[in-house]
User: What shape does this take?
Amino acid sequence: MALFFIFKLNKILIKLTLKELKTLPEMLEQLHLIQQLYPDYTIEIYADLLEEMLPNNYKQVVVYENEQSVGLSGFWVGTKLWCGKYLELDNVIVHPNHRSRGVGKLLTEYLNKKAVEIGCKVVALDAYTNNFPAHKFYYNHGFVPKGFHFVKFLEE
Assistant: This one.
């Protein structure tokens, strides 16, 4: 199912389409967006990771402008002791040429609504500590830091 949104930017009407992706081929088409965060990813690396993630309830939602994908967020639904059922945004990416045009807002609002509809108590996400523009965006959209996400790398 696709959702359509029309907004005005500098007196020009822009049509955005939002679509939830569930299959490997659909997600592989988004490599150009994934490479905004992970420039070294090849189609093979991306496919291998997705093949491990998809059986664990991983999905993506993508925003298209004139049939060109311009933003995406992966997401998972799970349950944890500290919060119960939750939806986690994973790798929210908006192409640099399409930032400040409502794409990120559309992604987060859609996933917030989905979380409510499926009975989640929390929407969560991780943001890199040095990604200050993302921090500002998430604060402005109702997210607050709850704790630290610690990582220990096992391979150098």
Remarks:
- The two ends are 42 Å apart (CA to CA).
